[in-house]
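Why do we bother with holo predictions? Because pocket geometry can differ from the apo form. Keep that in mind while you read this record for uridine-5'-diphosphate-glucuronic acid.
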Amino acid sequence: MKYNIKNICCIGAGYVGGPTMSVFAKHCPDIQFNVVDINTERINKWNSQNLKELPIYEPGLDTLIKKCRGKNLHFSTQVEAKIADADMIFISVNTPTKVSGFGAGKASDLKWIDKSSRQISKYGKSGAIVVEKSTLPVKTAQTIEEILNSNNNNKVFKILSNPEFLAEGSAINNLEFPDRVLIGGDDNEAINALIEIYSNWIEIDKILTTDLWSSELSKLISNAFLAQRISSINSISALCEKTGANIKEVSLAVGSDKRIGEYFLEAGPGFGGSCFKKDISNLVYISNYYGLKETASYWQKVIDINNWQSNRISQIIVNTLFGTVSGKRICILGFAFKSNTNDIRESPAISICRDLLEEGALLQIYDPRVEKQKINQELSKFKNHKDKSNGDKYWIILNSIKEATQNCDAIIVITEWNEFKDIVWSEIAPSMRHPSWVFDTRSIIDVKKAKKHGVNVWSVGNGSTNNK
Ligand code: NAD
Ligand code: UGA
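The structure, written out:
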Protein backbone atom coordinates (compact mmCIF):
# COMPACT_ATOMS: atom_id res chain seq x y z
CA MET A 1 0.00 0.00 0.00
CA LYS A 2 1.48 3.34 -1.00
CA TYR A 3 0.48 6.06 1.41
CA ASN A 4 -0.70 9.48 0.34
CA ILE A 5 -0.66 11.57 3.51
CA LYS A 6 -2.87 14.64 3.24
CA ASN A 7 -4.21 14.98 6.77
CA ILE A 8 -2.25 14.70 10.01
CA CYS A 9 -3.62 14.81 13.55
CA CYS A 10 -1.39 15.40 16.56
CA ILE A 11 -2.86 14.43 19.94
CA GLY A 12 -1.38 16.74 22.58
CA ALA A 13 -0.83 20.49 22.07
CA GLY A 14 2.02 20.82 24.56
CA TYR A 15 5.68 21.82 24.41
CA VAL A 16 6.28 19.13 21.78
CA GLY A 17 3.01 18.91 19.84
CA GLY A 18 2.62 22.67 19.22
CA PRO A 19 6.14 23.58 18.01
CA THR A 20 6.64 20.30 16.12
CA MET A 21 3.45 20.58 14.10
CA SER A 22 4.16 24.26 13.43
CA VAL A 23 7.46 23.38 11.76
CA PHE A 24 5.85 20.46 9.89
CA ALA A 25 3.08 22.78 8.66
CA LYS A 26 5.60 25.33 7.42
CA HIS A 27 7.42 22.75 5.33
CA CYS A 28 4.42 20.73 4.13
CA PRO A 29 1.90 23.25 2.78
CA ASP A 30 -0.11 20.52 1.03
CA ILE A 31 -0.87 18.66 4.24
CA GLN A 32 -3.50 19.75 6.79
CA PHE A 33 -2.31 19.57 10.41
CA ASN A 34 -4.78 19.38 13.28
CA VAL A 35 -3.33 19.67 16.77
CA VAL A 36 -5.90 18.55 19.34
CA ASP A 37 -5.99 18.63 23.11
CA ILE A 38 -8.46 18.00 25.92
CA ASN A 39 -7.24 21.15 27.66
CA THR A 40 -9.59 23.88 26.42
CA GLU A 41 -7.67 26.71 28.05
CA ARG A 42 -4.49 25.64 26.27
CA ILE A 43 -6.24 25.39 22.90
CA ASN A 44 -7.81 28.83 23.37
CA LYS A 45 -4.34 30.25 23.97
CA TRP A 46 -3.02 28.55 20.82
CA ASN A 47 -5.87 30.24 18.94
CA SER A 48 -5.39 33.65 20.54
CA GLN A 49 -5.07 36.56 18.12
CA ASN A 50 -2.57 38.08 20.51
CA LEU A 51 0.54 36.02 19.82
CA LYS A 52 1.96 37.01 23.21
CA GLU A 53 -0.73 34.79 24.74
CA LEU A 54 0.46 31.54 23.13
CA PRO A 55 0.65 28.89 25.88
CA ILE A 56 4.32 28.31 25.23
CA TYR A 57 7.15 30.77 24.99
CA GLU A 58 9.62 29.56 22.40
CA PRO A 59 11.75 31.88 20.26
CA GLY A 60 10.49 31.92 16.64
CA LEU A 61 7.24 30.11 17.40
CA ASP A 62 5.01 33.17 17.02
CA THR A 63 6.28 33.79 13.48
CA LEU A 64 5.42 30.23 12.46
CA ILE A 65 1.99 30.40 14.03
CA LYS A 66 1.30 33.65 12.22
CA LYS A 67 2.35 32.07 8.93
CA CYS A 68 0.48 28.76 9.15
CA ARG A 69 -2.40 28.99 11.62
CA GLY A 70 -5.80 28.94 9.92
CA LYS A 71 -4.17 27.82 6.64
CA ASN A 72 -2.82 24.32 7.11
CA LEU A 73 -2.36 24.39 10.90
CA HIS A 74 -5.35 24.20 13.24
CA PHE A 75 -5.71 23.87 17.00
CA SER A 76 -8.90 22.43 18.47
CA THR A 77 -10.50 20.30 21.15
CA GLN A 78 -12.26 18.12 18.57
CA VAL A 79 -10.11 15.13 19.39
CA GLU A 80 -12.39 12.43 18.00
CA ALA A 81 -13.34 14.20 14.75
CA LYS A 82 -9.76 15.12 13.89
CA ILE A 83 -8.54 11.59 14.64
CA ALA A 84 -11.24 10.30 12.29
CA ASP A 85 -10.03 12.51 9.43
CA ALA A 86 -6.34 11.68 9.75
CA ASP A 87 -4.09 9.55 7.52
CA MET A 88 -1.33 9.83 10.13
CA ILE A 89 -1.73 10.41 13.87
CA PHE A 90 1.06 11.59 16.16
CA ILE A 91 0.70 10.79 19.85
CA SER A 92 2.37 13.64 21.71
CA VAL A 93 0.72 13.43 25.12
CA ASN A 94 2.41 13.75 28.48
CA THR A 95 4.11 10.70 30.04
CA PRO A 96 5.08 11.85 33.55
CA THR A 97 6.44 9.69 36.32
CA LYS A 98 3.77 7.73 38.21
CA VAL A 99 2.91 9.27 41.54
CA SER A 100 1.14 6.26 43.03
CA GLY A 101 0.73 2.53 42.55
CA PHE A 102 3.30 0.07 41.20
CA GLY A 103 6.51 1.80 40.15
CA ALA A 104 5.50 5.10 41.78
CA GLY A 105 8.30 7.67 41.56
CA LYS A 106 10.08 5.70 38.83
CA ALA A 107 7.91 4.22 36.08
CA SER A 108 6.19 6.37 33.46
CA ASP A 109 2.49 6.90 33.85
CA LEU A 110 1.03 5.66 30.58
CA LYS A 111 -2.61 6.47 31.24
CA TRP A 112 -2.68 9.28 28.66
CA ILE A 113 -1.05 7.00 26.07
CA ASP A 114 -3.59 4.30 26.87
CA LYS A 115 -6.48 6.73 26.49
CA SER A 116 -5.23 8.18 23.18
CA SER A 117 -4.67 4.68 21.78
CA ARG A 118 -8.24 3.73 22.64
CA GLN A 119 -9.53 6.89 20.99
CA ILE A 120 -7.53 6.11 17.84
CA SER A 121 -8.77 2.55 17.83
CA LYS A 122 -12.37 3.71 18.08
CA TYR A 123 -12.36 6.76 15.80
CA GLY A 124 -9.32 6.35 13.56
CA LYS A 125 -9.45 5.27 9.89
CA SER A 126 -8.28 1.76 9.18
CA GLY A 127 -4.83 1.92 7.61
CA ALA A 128 -3.83 5.12 9.40
CA ILE A 129 -0.23 5.34 10.57
CA VAL A 130 0.16 5.94 14.31
CA VAL A 131 3.39 7.65 15.32
CA GLU A 132 4.71 7.64 18.90
CA LYS A 133 6.15 11.12 19.45
CA SER A 134 5.97 11.02 23.24
CA THR A 135 8.96 9.55 25.06
CA LEU A 136 8.02 6.04 26.07
CA PRO A 137 9.50 3.06 27.85
CA VAL A 138 10.93 0.46 25.50
CA LYS A 139 8.24 -1.95 24.29
CA THR A 140 5.36 0.54 24.63
CA ALA A 141 4.68 0.28 20.90
CA GLN A 142 3.64 -3.30 21.58
CA THR A 143 1.06 -2.12 24.14
CA ILE A 144 -0.23 0.54 21.76
CA GLU A 145 -0.48 -2.01 18.96
CA GLU A 146 -2.44 -4.40 21.16
CA ILE A 147 -4.90 -1.66 22.12
CA LEU A 148 -5.23 -0.38 18.56
CA ASN A 149 -5.82 -3.74 16.97
CA SER A 150 -8.04 -5.30 19.62
CA ASN A 151 -11.28 -3.52 18.89
CA ASN A 152 -13.04 -6.25 16.92
CA ASN A 153 -13.68 -3.71 14.19
CA ASN A 154 -11.25 -5.16 11.65
CA LYS A 155 -9.32 -1.91 11.54
CA VAL A 156 -5.56 -2.17 11.07
CA PHE A 157 -3.06 0.49 12.13
CA LYS A 158 0.66 0.72 11.47
CA ILE A 159 2.87 1.88 14.32
CA LEU A 160 6.05 3.90 14.14
CA SER A 161 8.29 5.31 16.83
CA ASN A 162 9.59 8.80 16.03
CA PRO A 163 10.95 10.26 19.27
CA GLU A 164 11.48 13.99 19.54
CA PHE A 165 14.89 15.42 20.45
CA LEU A 166 14.07 19.13 20.65
CA ALA A 167 15.20 21.09 23.70
CA GLU A 168 12.97 23.83 25.04
CA GLY A 169 14.19 27.34 24.32
CA SER A 170 15.76 26.21 21.04
CA ALA A 171 12.90 24.00 19.83
CA ILE A 172 12.28 25.70 16.49
CA ASN A 173 15.95 25.64 15.57
CA ASN A 174 16.24 22.00 16.68
CA LEU A 175 13.21 21.05 14.59
CA GLU A 176 14.44 22.96 11.55
CA PHE A 177 18.01 21.63 11.77
CA PRO A 178 17.98 18.40 13.76
CA ASP A 179 21.17 16.39 14.31
CA ARG A 180 19.11 13.38 13.30
CA VAL A 181 15.55 12.19 12.88
CA LEU A 182 14.91 8.72 14.22
CA ILE A 183 12.18 6.48 12.84
CA GLY A 184 11.62 3.01 14.27
CA GLY A 185 9.25 0.51 12.77
CA ASP A 186 8.83 -2.72 10.89
CA ASP A 187 6.65 -1.61 7.97
CA ASN A 188 8.72 -0.12 5.17
CA GLU A 189 5.86 1.66 3.47
CA ALA A 190 4.78 3.38 6.68
CA ILE A 191 8.40 4.32 7.37
CA ASN A 192 8.76 5.72 3.85
CA ALA A 193 5.59 7.78 4.28
CA LEU A 194 7.12 9.50 7.30
CA ILE A 195 10.51 9.87 5.61
CA GLU A 196 8.76 11.59 2.71
CA ILE A 197 7.32 14.20 5.08
CA TYR A 198 10.63 14.92 6.80
CA SER A 199 12.53 15.01 3.53
CA ASN A 200 10.71 18.25 2.69
CA TRP A 201 13.36 20.00 4.77
CA ILE A 202 15.79 17.44 6.15
CA GLU A 203 18.61 15.76 4.26
CA ILE A 204 17.97 12.10 3.81
CA ASP A 205 21.25 11.03 5.42
CA LYS A 206 20.12 12.60 8.69
CA ILE A 207 17.10 10.31 8.85
CA LEU A 208 17.95 7.11 10.71
CA THR A 209 15.70 4.09 10.62
CA THR A 210 15.74 1.29 13.19
CA ASP A 211 13.46 -1.31 14.68
CA LEU A 212 10.80 -0.06 17.10
CA TRP A 213 12.57 -1.10 20.29
CA SER A 214 15.92 0.47 19.39
CA SER A 215 14.17 3.73 18.56
CA GLU A 216 12.24 3.84 21.84
CA LEU A 217 15.32 2.96 23.85
CA SER A 218 17.61 5.40 22.01
CA LYS A 219 15.45 8.31 23.12
CA LEU A 220 15.69 7.37 26.81
CA ILE A 221 19.42 6.77 26.52
CA SER A 222 20.07 10.07 24.73
CA ASN A 223 18.48 11.93 27.62
CA ALA A 224 20.31 9.80 30.16
CA PHE A 225 23.68 10.56 28.52
CA LEU A 226 22.96 14.29 28.37
CA ALA A 227 21.90 14.40 32.01
CA GLN A 228 24.93 12.33 32.99
CA ARG A 229 27.24 15.02 31.62
CA ILE A 230 25.51 17.64 33.75
CA SER A 231 25.81 15.54 36.90
CA SER A 232 29.45 14.85 36.06
CA ILE A 233 30.31 18.53 35.73
CA ASN A 234 28.20 19.52 38.74
CA SER A 235 29.98 16.97 40.91
CA ILE A 236 33.28 18.55 39.87
CA SER A 237 31.97 22.09 40.48
CA ALA A 238 31.96 21.31 44.20
CA LEU A 239 35.56 20.13 43.98
CA CYS A 240 36.54 23.34 42.18
CA GLU A 241 34.97 25.40 44.96
CA LYS A 242 37.08 23.56 47.53
CA THR A 243 40.35 23.63 45.61
CA GLY A 244 40.33 27.12 44.12
CA ALA A 245 39.91 25.86 40.56
CA ASN A 246 37.33 27.32 38.19
CA ILE A 247 34.74 25.01 36.61
CA LYS A 248 34.45 27.18 33.49
CA GLU A 249 38.12 26.71 32.77
CA VAL A 250 37.96 23.01 33.59
CA SER A 251 34.93 22.57 31.27
CA LEU A 252 36.70 24.35 28.46
CA ALA A 253 39.88 22.34 28.86
CA VAL A 254 38.09 19.02 29.20
CA GLY A 255 35.52 19.71 26.46
CA SER A 256 38.19 20.71 23.95
CA ASP A 257 39.01 17.04 23.57
CA LYS A 258 36.91 16.07 20.55
CA ARG A 259 36.19 12.70 22.13
CA ILE A 260 34.47 14.48 25.00
CA GLY A 261 33.02 17.51 23.20
CA GLU A 262 32.32 21.04 24.31
CA TYR A 263 28.53 20.97 24.80
CA PHE A 264 26.53 20.22 27.93
CA LEU A 265 29.37 20.84 30.33
CA GLU A 266 27.98 23.90 32.08
CA ALA A 267 27.75 23.61 35.84
CA GLY A 268 24.53 24.90 37.34
CA PRO A 269 21.93 24.42 40.05
CA GLY A 270 21.09 20.94 38.72
CA PHE A 271 19.14 19.98 35.65
CA GLY A 272 15.42 20.66 35.56
CA GLY A 273 12.75 20.21 32.93
CA SER A 274 10.03 17.67 32.51
CA CYS A 275 12.14 14.94 30.96
CA PHE A 276 15.62 14.22 32.31
CA LYS A 277 14.56 13.08 35.77
CA LYS A 278 11.48 11.28 34.46
CA ASP A 279 13.37 9.47 31.70
CA ILE A 280 16.31 8.40 33.87
CA SER A 281 13.91 7.25 36.60
CA ASN A 282 12.23 5.19 33.94
CA LEU A 283 15.56 3.77 32.80
CA VAL A 284 16.33 2.81 36.41
CA TYR A 285 12.91 1.19 36.70
CA ILE A 286 13.28 -0.80 33.48
CA SER A 287 16.81 -1.92 34.40
CA ASN A 288 15.60 -3.15 37.79
CA TYR A 289 12.66 -4.85 36.12
CA TYR A 290 15.09 -6.85 33.98
CA GLY A 291 17.25 -7.64 37.02
CA LEU A 292 20.11 -5.35 35.96
CA LYS A 293 20.85 -3.88 39.39
CA GLU A 294 24.25 -2.41 38.46
CA THR A 295 22.83 -0.63 35.43
CA ALA A 296 20.01 0.70 37.60
CA SER A 297 22.25 1.97 40.40
CA TYR A 298 24.71 3.53 37.92
CA TRP A 299 21.98 5.74 36.42
CA GLN A 300 20.31 6.40 39.77
CA LYS A 301 23.51 8.20 40.80
CA VAL A 302 22.94 10.78 38.04
CA ILE A 303 19.68 11.75 39.75
CA ASP A 304 21.22 11.59 43.23
CA ILE A 305 24.00 14.01 42.25
CA ASN A 306 21.40 16.33 40.74
CA ASN A 307 19.41 16.48 43.98
CA TRP A 308 22.60 16.93 45.96
CA GLN A 309 23.69 19.86 43.80
CA SER A 310 20.58 22.00 44.39
CA ASN A 311 20.49 21.02 48.03
CA ARG A 312 24.12 21.93 48.67
CA ILE A 313 23.56 25.31 46.99
CA SER A 314 20.66 26.03 49.36
CA GLN A 315 22.92 25.14 52.27
CA ILE A 316 25.74 27.37 51.03
CA ILE A 317 23.31 30.29 50.79
CA VAL A 318 22.06 29.85 54.35
CA ASN A 319 25.54 29.24 55.79
CA THR A 320 27.00 32.24 54.02
CA LEU A 321 24.22 34.52 55.24
CA PHE A 322 25.47 33.93 58.81
CA GLY A 323 23.55 30.68 59.28
CA THR A 324 20.10 32.19 59.04
CA VAL A 325 17.85 33.67 56.38
CA SER A 326 14.89 34.01 58.74
CA GLY A 327 13.10 37.27 57.99
CA LYS A 328 15.68 38.20 55.35
CA ARG A 329 14.60 39.32 51.89
CA ILE A 330 16.07 37.11 49.23
CA CYS A 331 15.72 37.98 45.56
CA ILE A 332 15.22 35.05 43.18
CA LEU A 333 16.21 35.85 39.61
CA GLY A 334 14.69 33.30 37.26
CA PHE A 335 12.12 30.61 37.89
CA ALA A 336 12.14 28.80 34.51
CA PHE A 337 14.22 25.59 34.41
CA LYS A 338 16.42 27.18 31.72
CA SER A 339 16.39 30.39 29.70
CA ASN A 340 14.13 31.07 26.70
CA THR A 341 11.22 29.04 28.03
CA ASN A 342 8.27 29.70 30.31
CA ASP A 343 8.38 26.09 31.55
CA ILE A 344 9.00 25.56 35.27
CA ARG A 345 8.57 21.79 35.44
CA GLU A 346 11.22 20.35 37.80
CA SER A 347 12.98 23.71 37.85
CA PRO A 348 15.79 23.89 40.44
CA ALA A 349 14.13 27.17 41.47
CA ILE A 350 11.40 25.12 43.12
CA SER A 351 13.61 23.19 45.53
CA ILE A 352 15.84 26.19 46.28
CA CYS A 353 12.78 28.39 47.02
CA ARG A 354 11.30 25.62 49.15
CA ASP A 355 14.50 25.32 51.20
CA LEU A 356 14.68 29.09 51.72
CA LEU A 357 11.00 29.33 52.69
CA GLU A 358 11.57 26.48 55.16
CA GLU A 359 14.33 28.60 56.68
CA GLY A 360 11.98 31.56 57.04
CA ALA A 361 13.18 33.75 54.16
CA LEU A 362 10.96 36.27 52.36
CA LEU A 363 11.31 35.80 48.62
CA GLN A 364 11.16 38.52 45.94
CA ILE A 365 10.90 36.67 42.65
CA TYR A 366 11.35 37.85 39.08
CA ASP A 367 11.33 35.87 35.83
CA PRO A 368 10.94 37.61 32.47
CA ARG A 369 8.67 34.94 30.93
CA VAL A 370 7.06 32.73 33.55
CA GLU A 371 3.43 33.60 34.34
CA LYS A 372 2.97 34.74 37.96
CA GLN A 373 0.09 32.36 38.49
CA LYS A 374 2.34 29.37 37.67
CA ILE A 375 4.89 30.38 40.30
CA ASN A 376 2.16 30.99 42.88
CA GLN A 377 0.63 27.61 42.15
CA GLU A 378 3.97 25.86 42.57
CA LEU A 379 4.99 27.60 45.78
CA SER A 380 1.52 27.24 47.28
CA LYS A 381 2.21 23.51 47.45
CA PHE A 382 4.39 24.37 50.43
CA LYS A 383 1.28 25.01 52.48
CA ASN A 384 2.89 26.40 55.60
CA HIS A 385 4.25 29.33 53.70
CA LYS A 386 1.25 30.77 51.89
CA ASP A 387 0.61 33.85 54.03
CA LYS A 388 1.98 35.27 57.24
CA SER A 389 -0.44 35.78 60.14
CA ASN A 390 -0.56 39.51 59.38
CA GLY A 391 -1.65 38.77 55.80
CA ASP A 392 1.75 39.50 54.24
CA LYS A 393 3.08 37.03 51.72
CA TYR A 394 6.17 34.92 52.23
CA TRP A 395 6.93 35.49 48.57
CA ILE A 396 6.04 38.16 46.07
CA ILE A 397 6.48 38.13 42.32
CA LEU A 398 7.75 41.32 40.75
CA ASN A 399 8.12 42.79 37.29
CA SER A 400 11.78 43.69 36.98
CA ILE A 401 15.24 43.06 38.38
CA LYS A 402 15.10 46.48 39.96
CA GLU A 403 11.88 45.82 41.87
CA ALA A 404 12.92 42.32 42.92
CA THR A 405 16.30 43.37 44.30
CA GLN A 406 14.92 46.24 46.41
CA ASN A 407 16.02 45.95 50.08
CA CYS A 408 17.18 42.39 49.66
CA ASP A 409 20.10 40.82 51.53
CA ALA A 410 20.99 38.50 48.71
CA ILE A 411 20.27 37.75 45.07
CA ILE A 412 20.11 34.16 43.84
CA VAL A 413 20.54 33.80 40.07
CA ILE A 414 18.81 30.58 39.11
CA THR A 415 18.02 30.89 35.39
CA GLU A 416 20.61 32.07 32.87
CA TRP A 417 18.40 34.73 31.21
CA ASN A 418 20.48 37.20 29.20
CA GLU A 419 19.23 40.20 31.15
CA PHE A 420 20.75 38.76 34.35
CA LYS A 421 24.17 38.66 32.70
CA ASP A 422 24.04 42.41 32.24
CA ILE A 423 22.90 43.56 35.67
CA VAL A 424 23.89 47.19 36.17
CA TRP A 425 25.42 46.90 39.62
CA SER A 426 25.77 50.64 40.05
CA GLU A 427 21.94 50.81 40.05
CA ILE A 428 21.17 47.63 41.95
CA ALA A 429 23.81 47.49 44.70
CA PRO A 430 22.79 50.73 46.51
CA SER A 431 19.23 49.47 47.03
CA MET A 432 20.37 46.20 48.66
CA ARG A 433 20.87 45.68 52.39
CA HIS A 434 24.46 45.36 53.58
CA PRO A 435 26.40 43.14 53.64
CA SER A 436 24.92 42.16 50.29
CA TRP A 437 25.47 38.97 48.37
CA VAL A 438 24.86 37.48 44.97
CA PHE A 439 24.76 33.68 44.64
CA ASP A 440 25.26 32.89 41.00
CA THR A 441 24.20 29.29 40.35
CA ARG A 442 24.91 29.66 36.61
CA SER A 443 28.24 31.41 36.72
CA ILE A 444 27.03 34.25 34.46
CA ILE A 445 27.60 37.29 36.66
CA ASP A 446 30.62 39.50 36.10
CA VAL A 447 32.29 38.92 39.47
CA LYS A 448 34.61 41.92 39.24
CA LYS A 449 31.81 44.38 38.45
CA ALA A 450 29.57 43.13 41.29
CA LYS A 451 32.46 43.26 43.77
CA LYS A 452 33.41 46.74 42.62
CA HIS A 453 29.99 47.89 43.86
CA GLY A 454 30.39 46.21 47.21
CA VAL A 455 28.43 43.05 46.50
CA ASN A 456 29.98 39.77 47.68
CA VAL A 457 29.85 37.01 45.10
CA TRP A 458 29.51 33.25 45.28
CA SER A 459 29.61 31.64 41.88
CA VAL A 460 29.07 27.92 41.27
CA GLY A 461 32.30 26.03 40.71
CA ASN A 462 34.42 29.14 41.09
CA GLY A 463 36.92 28.47 43.84
CA SER A 464 38.26 32.01 43.74
CA THR A 465 34.97 33.59 44.86
CA ASN A 466 34.11 34.10 48.48
CA ASN A 467 32.66 30.74 49.34
CA LYS A 468 33.06 28.58 52.39
P1 NAD B 1 2.83 18.64 27.77
O1 NAD B 1 2.29 18.25 29.10
O2 NAD B 1 3.30 20.04 27.53
O3 NAD B 1 1.70 18.35 26.64
C1 NAD B 1 0.96 17.17 26.57
C2 NAD B 1 -0.49 17.54 26.20
O4 NAD B 1 -1.23 16.34 25.94
C3 NAD B 1 -1.25 18.25 27.33
O5 NAD B 1 -1.67 19.54 26.89
C4 NAD B 1 -2.46 17.33 27.61
O6 NAD B 1 -3.65 18.02 27.92
C5 NAD B 1 -2.59 16.58 26.30
N1 NAD B 1 -3.31 15.31 26.40
C6 NAD B 1 -3.13 14.29 27.28
N2 NAD B 1 -3.98 13.28 27.01
C7 NAD B 1 -4.71 13.64 25.93
C8 NAD B 1 -5.75 13.01 25.17
N3 NAD B 1 -6.19 11.79 25.46
N4 NAD B 1 -6.29 13.70 24.14
C9 NAD B 1 -5.86 14.95 23.82
N5 NAD B 1 -4.87 15.58 24.50
C10 NAD B 1 -4.31 14.94 25.54
O7 NAD B 1 3.97 17.60 27.44
P2 NAD B 1 5.23 17.83 26.46
O8 NAD B 1 6.30 18.56 27.18
O9 NAD B 1 4.74 18.32 25.15
O10 NAD B 1 5.74 16.33 26.30
C11 NAD B 1 5.00 15.38 25.56
C12 NAD B 1 5.84 14.13 25.37
O11 NAD B 1 7.01 14.47 24.61
C13 NAD B 1 6.37 13.52 26.66
O12 NAD B 1 6.39 12.12 26.51
C14 NAD B 1 7.78 14.04 26.77
O13 NAD B 1 8.62 13.15 27.48
C15 NAD B 1 8.20 14.10 25.32
N6 NAD B 1 9.22 15.11 25.01
C16 NAD B 1 9.18 16.35 25.59
C17 NAD B 1 10.13 17.31 25.25
C18 NAD B 1 10.12 18.68 25.88
O14 NAD B 1 11.09 19.40 25.72
N7 NAD B 1 9.09 19.08 26.60
C19 NAD B 1 11.10 17.02 24.29
C20 NAD B 1 11.10 15.76 23.69
C21 NAD B 1 10.16 14.81 24.06
C1 UGA C 1 16.30 17.86 26.95
C2 UGA C 1 17.22 17.38 25.83
O1 UGA C 1 18.28 18.31 25.64
C3 UGA C 1 16.44 17.22 24.52
O2 UGA C 1 17.28 16.67 23.52
C4 UGA C 1 15.25 16.30 24.76
O3 UGA C 1 14.48 16.18 23.59
C5 UGA C 1 14.40 16.85 25.89
O4 UGA C 1 15.21 16.98 27.09
C6 UGA C 1 13.26 15.95 26.26
O5 UGA C 1 13.24 14.77 25.98
O6 UGA C 1 12.39 16.52 26.92
P1 UGA C 1 15.30 20.20 27.71
O7 UGA C 1 15.04 19.49 28.99
O8 UGA C 1 14.19 20.93 27.08
O9 UGA C 1 15.84 19.16 26.61
O10 UGA C 1 16.49 21.25 27.90
P2 UGA C 1 18.09 21.08 28.06
O11 UGA C 1 18.74 22.12 27.27
O12 UGA C 1 18.52 19.69 27.83
O13 UGA C 1 18.29 21.44 29.60
C7 UGA C 1 17.88 20.57 30.63
C8 UGA C 1 18.41 21.07 31.95
O14 UGA C 1 19.81 20.90 32.04
C9 UGA C 1 18.16 22.56 32.19
O15 UGA C 1 17.80 22.76 33.54
C10 UGA C 1 19.49 23.19 31.89
O16 UGA C 1 19.70 24.42 32.55
C11 UGA C 1 20.44 22.12 32.39
N1 UGA C 1 21.77 22.18 31.78
C12 UGA C 1 21.92 21.98 30.44
C13 UGA C 1 22.87 22.41 32.57
O17 UGA C 1 22.76 22.57 33.80
N2 UGA C 1 24.10 22.43 31.99
C14 UGA C 1 24.29 22.23 30.66
O18 UGA C 1 25.45 22.26 30.20
C15 UGA C 1 23.16 22.01 29.87
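The two ends are 68 Å apart (CA to CA).
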